[in-house]
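Q: Predict the bound structure with calcium ion.
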Amino acid sequence: MRILIVEDNVALADELSADLKRCGYAVDWLADGRDALYQGASEPYDLILLDLGLPGKSGLDILREWRATGMQRPVLILTARDHWVERIDGLKAGADDYLTKPFHPEELQLRIQALLRRAHGQVNQPQLEAAGIQLDEAKQAVIVAGNSIELTAAEFSLLRYLMLNVGKIISKSQLNDHLYDGENERDSNVIEVHINHLRSKLGKSAIETKRGQGYRFIGIQQP
Ligand code: CA
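A: Predicted complex:
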């Protein structure tokens, strides 16, 4: 899952970025409103964190323009405490949720999880669940038949993406777009290696290869 942070407070943006990376998200950061307007709509982000007071263009104007052009990505706005007018304006402009600064990192993580699951038509249960497999996002572990199996950071973010898209064919380029930020080198051979590691942990048939098309997460088939 790839997240764009639009925030001109550098210290806050640094902290947010580090928190989100720890939680297995690929993160891009922009401080200027005009850059955000363009890049937020053109890059395939799964979610956008949007500050409202920004140089170049205000967060509200950006959000209105995105929604007017049909941009559907989940947007969570960051507002100052007690600015209830901002929160209402933000929701009216098309925000999916908001958080008031300062906030607890865990609250942000839980709101992001909920928005991503909703965007993929999944129920917001305590753990992400798909096709007989549970993912513990806090511990970055997978639970198969009651047993918790540890995952590497790369395996965790890959499996989360596949589970949120259960049953769908996902191409390697889609995985590259959604698992890496705009700066890191992308290499589809690396994805293949992680897919094989996941298969050895979940069972060979949990992830199907569709020749020439990509992968499909099918989980554990009930007997
Ligand atoms: Ca600001």
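A: The chain has two domains: 2-119, 128-217.
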